Amino acid sequence: MKIRDILAEGKPTLSFEVFPPKTADNYETVEKAALEIARTRPAFMSVTYGAGGGTSEYTVRIASMIRDKGQVTPLAHLTCVSSTRERVRELLQELKENHIENILALRGDIPEGGRTAFDYMYASELVAEIKEAGDFCIGGACYPEGHVESASKDEDIIHLKEKVDAGCDFLTTQMFFDNNILYNFLYRIREKGITVPVIVGIMPVTNAKQITRICRMSGTYLPSRFKAIVDRFGNDPAAMKQAGIAYATDQIIDLIANGVNAVHIYSMNKSDVAERIRDSLSQIIR
Ligand code: FAD
Fold first, then answer.
1. Ligand 1 environment, Cβ below 6 A
2. Is 285 a domain residue?
3. Which domain holds residue 222?
4. Count of alpha carbons within 13 Å of 123, Cβ hemisphere only?
């Protein structure tokens, strides 16, 4: 099923992200976690591509497995920063052959040593290419606090509009820990004529180390209420996990109460976290 059709139903939905294994040795562990998450009956599940040092070769395989064994609609991520046009075309063909209808089109982070391929400068070019390649439902990434490389939020939104105009059916946000940042962002993009549905990304922070990484990579703002939780529970893994899940659940309840329908959880293959969030929202997202 196409994600744009799921979103068009206008009902609150929960979806989850998983990342593929780095090596064949980890395949079964990832499959098991993904199937456990699939059992919570999410609206869809996304599978990252080459993010966090992982490889990309398992993205299509895990996405197909989620659909065939998990009976859940998959969304395959695809990055273009290190790809040639030829490689992207091969992957699109592979996605077609595996009947994967939904693609999150991303540029990807510029590698530390610099680019090795220059066929694509920005995700908008990948979006245009996917649109030409077939009947895919295409998503793009967006950044409520502005992308780290952007000089200003306004400039980032101008480029976001170009990306949407290139053919995005929906957007998915980067994580944030203060919902007011999201509400402000939604107001600004709507004002600039970006009307596609926005799926809101929420990261349940379940250990203190994650926070350091998040701040280093994306400069995400941490509200004092969130910092107090980390200060108090950061050295107690079980307490931090419980508090992190509660914080994320609280964020989601506030989002749904304020009219946001689609929530995507950066569940990082943690099926117990996905299950706990799902259970806490059983009467809110039915
Ligand atoms: P773009 O949309 O190309 O934007 C990148 C930067 O370029 C922005 O600052 C933008 O304002 C600017 N820009 C765009 N067009 C122009 C233009 N014409 N002229 C000048 N500047 C321009 N990474 C992975 O490696 N794998 C994943 O699976 C993955 N999944 C993600 C999922 C989500 C929901 C999000 C939010 C991010 C994900 N990322 C992933 C990270 C993402 O690849 C990085 O944040 C990357 O740095 C930007 O990708 P993008 O697609 O947003 O890029």
1. 48-51, 77, 79, 104, 106-109, 122-124, 141, 147, 149-150, 156, 159, 163, 172, 174, 201
2. no
3. 3-280
4. 28
Domain assignment of residue 286, yes or no: no
Output the CA torsion 43→48→52→55 (10° steps). Answer: 150
Please provide the average confidence, as pLDDT, over all residues in the chain. Answer: 95
Q: Please report, in angstroms and rounded to a whole number, the separation of the first and last CA atoms in the chain.
A: 19
Structural contact between residues 144 and 182, judged by C-beta atoms closer than 8 angstroms: yes
pLDDT tens figures, 64-120: 999 999 999 999 999 999 899 999 999 999 999 999 999 999 999 988 888 888 999
**Local structure of 26: helix, strand or coil:** helix
In this structure, what are the phi and psi dihedrals at residue 88, rounded to the nearest 5 degrees?
-60, -40
Using a cut of 0.90, tell me whether the model's pTM lies above it: yes
Tokens, residue 112: 């530390």
Judge whether 260 lies within some domain. yes
d(C-alpha 201, C-alpha 198), whole Å: 9
Mutate to test the pocket of ligand 1, among 147, 150, 194, 199 (most ligand atoms within 8 A of CB): 147
Ligand 1: distance of its center to the CA of 80 in Å? 10
Total domain count for the chain? 1
Q: Is-contact 91 78, C-beta < 8 A?
A: yes
DSSP secondary structure of 207-232: SHHHHHHHHHHH-----HHHHHHHHH
The residue with tokens 């059709």 is 5
CATH number of the domain that residue 25 is part of = 3.20.20.220
- The amino acid present at 224, given as its one-letter code, is S
